Amino acid sequence: MADEELEALRQQRMAELQGKSADPSGDPSQQEAKQREAEIRNTILAQVLDQAARARLSNLALVKPDKAKAVESYLIQMARFGQLAGKVSEQGLIEILEKVSQQTEKKTTVKFNRRKVLDSDEEDDY
C-alpha cells in the first residue's frame, strides 16, 4: 500500500518537473530538434575525446559554458574535416583550450588622464 502511494507521488513529481522544464511557448518539434542536436554533439564528442578529456570539458562547461561550447564546436569541426588522427587526450584538449583562449582573449587597456590642478602642495606658492 505504501509502495503504491510512493510510486504515485513519484509519478506526480516527475510530471511536475517535466512540466516546469518544458518551455510553454516553445514548439515541441523545436525541442526535439534541440535534443537531437545535443545527442549528435555528444556522440561526436564521445568518439573524438577520451574519458579524461571529456571530464575536463564537462568541468569547463560548468564554469565557463560559452568557452566550452566554443571548444566543442572547434572539436566537431575538426572531426568533420578529418583533422583529428585519433582520440584527443587530456593534454591535447589543454592545447586546444589554450588556442581558443588566445583567439578569444580580450585585451584591456587602462588610460590615465591626469588633470593639472591649480592647487599644488609646494611651499613656494605661499
TrEMBL record:
Gene3D superfamilies: PDCD5-like. GO terms for cellular component: cytosol; nucleus. InterPro entries: PDCD5-like, PDCD5-like_sf. Keywords: Acetylation, Apoptosis, Phosphoprotein. One of its GO terms (biological process) is apoptotic process. The keyword Zinc-finger does not apply. Residues 14-37 are annotated as: Disordered. The keyword 4Fe-4S does not apply. GO terms for molecular function: DNA binding. Belongs to the PDCD5 family. May function in the process of apoptosis. PANTHER family: PROGRAMMED CELL DEATH PROTEIN 5. This is Programmed cell death protein 5. It comes from Upupa epops.
